[in-house]
Amino acid sequence: MPNPPQPWYTPGSPQQPVPGNPYASEGFGPPPRRRRFGGAPVIAAAVALLLVAVGGGVYAFVDRGEDGPTTPVAKESSGPSAPTAPPSSPAVSTPQAKHIPTTEEINAARKPGDAATWIVDDKTDLPNGRQKLYDLWIVGDTVVQALHKKVAAYRLSDGAEVWSMRLPAPVCETPVNPTPDGKVVLVYHKRADAGRNNRCNQMQMIDLKTGKPGWHKELPETGDGDNTFIVRSAISAGTFAIARSMKATAYRVDDGTELFDIPWEDPGKCFPDDVAGGARLLVKSDCMIDIDQSKNHSQLREIDPLTGKVLWRHRTKTGWRLGSMISVDPVVFTTENAVDHINDWRVVALGPEGKTGTTIDPRDKSLEQCAGDSSGGDIQPCRGTAVGNGHIILGGNDRIRLYDLTTGKFLWGIKNNELRTLHPLRAEKGKAALVYESATPSRPGRTFLMGPGAAGTEKVLLRHPASTAAQEFEMFGGRLAYADGRVVLTSAGVSGNDDQREARMLSFAPGPL
Q: Region (Disordered) spans which residues (predicted)?
């Protein structure tokens, strides 16, 4: 049977404010993640509009450099000339710090029906260049995030900084989720400088409820060479798992006790290289059987986080590898052709004991794997996706499609005719989806509920104020969290240059601040 037609809608049409949010108590969706998306400042409105016009094809902004010095050119002399005064030195302009509006300024400009909004302008001194913002953690009534050498918690109700702690060197890895009681282990560099051979090997436990540091350990070398420059980590059931250079080890979050090593499978061929956490502890291994990638495959194992016992194994098809984890419960991930991983990919949902359940091929509607954020970096999370209520939502660029997770059947889809990013926050009951729609340089985003109805049937839950459009647009492609009816977003990174300062965090919620 042919797919039903996709409803189309125009985000710019007049919208009525919706009092309250009946979906405020159902948790939060996955925060987004890494790579190709950027949060660099807007250089000029014309450049920004050009970037928006290309839709899902551009996710990073490049600063325009100053004109370089001109090369002197010798000219033929026409004879003696009168002496000239020495040239005056050109005036040197001092870069001015860009104004970041305050929460008070933003809310003073709100119109009736606009969402209550707060903004964080963190004035912590940063090195020049882009500085990565790490995973968003919602703990109690705060949202916590690491940036450079600082970890800070901000109150969800008003964005006020509740606590912060400084680290001796920059953060280089964080797990997607903390323990249920709010503890996390992050990894930072061995040295404070950004020079070569600066290993990512210092493990630090932090209680995110209080901001108090716990145990600290240095990740031991394995003898395999450069094995602690790139590490991957995850937390599940009080266990912190960390993978690097063909080795994975598990530690107890509470006290740092080493619990077990996660072994190779088929020694010499399959080695663990990434981990995913949450309701399950999953370990990905690449199986390098041959130099020809079309002969290789990936393996996914569920590990008991307390004992290290392997509960099940799943093997991808030969010539295919595991891409990114969309969900750990149920287990849903992307798989990609090892030779052409950009264009040839699928979504796979596993049944009991790691057996293949459903395979979905969404490529016919121009969807990109993890909203174009799929190759390289951690396997968790997969940006622009959501799983729940027996459905999976794929989106993140200018369209969204919802599928039945059991049958793989396409149920409905929408496409934004303004080429704004659509990011599913959560799958709702009744084949519906909660969706965040990104801002443009001059128009704010919004958060709405959409089901399988026709155009214009979306229910706007949060109408973001126009006074934050510029800051919201700068956070395009960054990290995103949803908790109790509130949207929290940040850039993927911020600039350390004073004249290119950006807001640290932005949040929208129903009702007055």
A: 1-36, 69-101
| Tens digits of residue pLDDT in 286-303 | 888 788 888 899 999 999
The three-state secondary structure class of 364 is helix
**Is 161 a domain residue?**
no
CA angle 424, 430, 433 (to 5 degrees): 10
Q: What are the tens digits of pLDDT across the range 62-85?
A: 222 333 333 333 333 344 444 444
Nearest to 317 by CA among 331, 341, 299: 299
For residue 471, being part of any structural domain is answered with yes
Of 31, 256, 242, 255, the C-alpha closest to 146 is 31
pTM above 0.85, yes or no: no
Domain count, the chain: 1
- Containing domain of residue 436, as a range? 1-52+97-127+429-513
Burial 352-391 (b: 16+ CB within 10 A, else e): eebeebbebebeeeebbbbbbbbeebbbbbbbbbbbbeeb
User: Contact, 100 vs 501, CB < 8 A?
Assistant: yes
